[in-house]
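[Discussion] Sanity-checking designs against the backbone

I'm trying to build intuition for which residues belong where. Below is a structure token string of 92 positions. I'd appreciate it if someone posts a full sequence so I can compare it with mine line by line.
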């Protein structure tokens, strides 16, 4: 297994622990969950593409930029929706 993949999975485990601790302290909000989730996904995508040995630097920078923009445009609302599915708002 590639070392970078192992580091990314350890980072994912750390993010999940952070989410659990923030939820336990009642400080995890929908926006914070979405921001951290999409930021980690962006990091994972960039590190995965950057570790490809045959990637052309010129093309990969443009591709990474487009991929990150699409990740944030699509991923942020999806992450907010996922948060609402797991933790529905409390009704009075």
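Best answer:
Here's mine. Compare freely.
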């Amino acid at each position: 297994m590639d070392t970078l993949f192992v580091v990314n999975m350890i980072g994912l485990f750390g993010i999940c622990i952070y989410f659990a601790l923030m939820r336990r302290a009642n400080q995890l909000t929908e926006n914070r969950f979405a921001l951290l989730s999409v930021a980690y996904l962006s990091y994972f995508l960039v590190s995965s593409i950057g570790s490809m040995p045959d990637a052309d630097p010129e093309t990969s920078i443009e591709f990474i930029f487009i991929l990150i923009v699409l990740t944030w445009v699509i991923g942020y609302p999806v992450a907010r929706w996922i948060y609402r599915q797991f933790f529905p708002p409390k009704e009075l």
